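Standup, Tuesday
Yesterday: got the pipeline producing structure tokens again.
Today: sanity-check two examples.
Blockers: none.

Example 1:
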Amino acid sequence: MDKDVGDLEKNNIKLTAAEIASLWKTYIQSTAVRCFYKHFLQHLQDTEIQSIVEEFMILVETIIGKVKTIFEEENFPMPNGFSDKDVDLSAPALYTDLFALSYAYRVGQVTMPHYTNVLTKATRLDIYDFFKACLHNETELHKKALALMLSKGLNDRPPKMEYPVSVEYVKQHPSLLNTWLGEKRPLNCLEIAELYQDIERNAIGLVALMGLLQVTKDKEIKDYLLKGKKLAEDQIETFEKLLKVNHHFSGTPVTMEVTNSTISPFSEKLILFFISSSNQAAISTLGDALSVSMRKDIAAHYSLFLTNVIRYSEEGLKLMVKRGWMEQPPQTIDRNELYKN
């Protein structure tokens, strides 16, 4: 980008609503993720995992600092997000080193699509360049995390399939179309990929929930987390069964990567936000999976789980609002109220 053009834009063009939303969401999520990395880094013993989590930490700190600078230059109110008040660094380790690596890997899975999405909405070139750099750096670190997980046997590869011998088209004959959209047809590559990803997503989420459940003292929040645990277990069981019936195996066992600590390193506000962010990611991935699934039975499962996750998410948001923990996204002026005055 031409430096003069970038400076001219920065000085004369205000942020759009889309750019404000992208920066605000990035800041809130990054400050939350930073709390988890701080806890992990207090206890990591594996030097390889420690090194890569430190790299993720540096990236998150850099992103938070850049967003702060942009908001300050724009005289825009700084979001609160999360801080050292939301993480107890004196608390014992809640998860093993392997889960810390899984968490960093999962963060990459969520943030890379986020940066891709916000790039398409950025029109100010300095904001575009910022998110372009975020995407590049997150992609490089995610690749490192994936390679380390594979080397430690923590992450299996998705199911393989025989290569087809030729290109085929779906026949429009009613009986064949019914077979294609019905329950008897073998899974295609799109369906296998989505089923595996949803099993992997829920497996990592389930381990996270197990840890949070054993340190959460608030009964209302604990009950909410138990519902999330059941929802994750149901998805894993359903999707694994679909793969197994069709002679595919997920290879993603839920290993116990939680310690015996009962002292929470995280604030209840942060815990609920983590679940809320996980719900948002689940809604997106389930929607994507539903859009490419052509078998009626699989589409029905995705539709049901999508509805259940939306309901679960709504319950969590109400709980956050009730506790006064839900930071409101930047709002436009309510001109109807101005008219009244």
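Example 2:
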Amino acid sequence: MLFDLFLFSCSICSASRLYPINQLAALQLPEYPYTLPSPPEKPTPSFSIGPHKIMGQAILAPMAGVSDLPFRNLCRKYGAGLAVSEMVSSDASLRNTRKSKLRIRHEGERSPISIQIVGTDPKQLAEAARYNVDQGADIIDINMGCPAKKVCKKLAGSALMKDERLVEDILRTVVKAVSVPVTLKIRTGWSPEQRNAPQVARIAEDCGIQALAIHGRTRACRFNGEAEYVTIKHVTGVVNIPVIANGDISTPEKAKKVLDQSGAACIMLGRGARGRPWVFQEINRYLEKQEVTAPPAFSEQKQVILEHLQQIHHLYGDICGIKIARKHVSWYTGYQSDGKDFRHHFNRLNSIEEQISSVQQYYERLIQQETNTE
């Protein structure tokens, strides 16, 4: 659903007018890049991917239409140890499309930069890996976990788990093609009857994969039901590379529970981070100090959202930027009791000026309510 929405919204982006940073600043946005009022404490290293030490035990999952450059930068500021890019096709004929170019933008992004590639042909994937290293990737991640029909019908994504020989061919070819670490994202299997993640994990380790992320559902389950972590526990028992647990993690308490149950080195957040980039700070503090951290004050949330809007419009332009901003602001305000009425209003706005003014007014009201209750 998110992947389809992103493709639709970006189909009209070629007509977008790009806003230079100085013009956006005139719209009373915070300075770019914005410095958080209370920067999160620097987490301690938890594991390494090749030469790269990953700080903390929470990283951002690759999500089509979500984990773009603005959102990755914001999550890293709040303590995400790594933020994997949206998946990029290995098809060289698509490299010059506007969508593909936007997905490999890395201005201001902290190292290590991880780019995820998707495809089915080993040589094509190897060439895509080399290309993305040339574009600045410190880590190449291979997608064998996406359950989307439009990906699986091409036998890419999680469909590859049905063919372990092809999995091995792809992994060996890509690892040999680049000098940077290669990681892999998979699901627990193709179906509940075929949970072959432990076998794929052993293949991955033998091929030189340096970290493995596992979503706790099969491809057949898509995002239905609850994620399970027993299979991930089996994987941690059969390989020596870092294993990253993913699926249904949205709170510090759940993060700790999953780490304890799975034996994973780290957890990966996807949907649980939408509208809550500060969740990484909350998780790191809970895991390191067993302290529960309250969400940022509304004054900080307002500034964070305005920064995010600024970066979205600078990257995508006015038409596409307006549509993508609607999606993120809906997630930000989804945790407020009166958020539904605001979202209905916000989604009808058709200019960056209106969007900024609306967010400012809405959060000023929340700030006033917060002050009155203190």
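Quick observation on example 2: Strands lie at 45-49, 52-55, 58-60, 88-89, 114-118, 139-144, 182-187, 212-215, 243-246, 266-269. The chain has 15 helices and ten strands.
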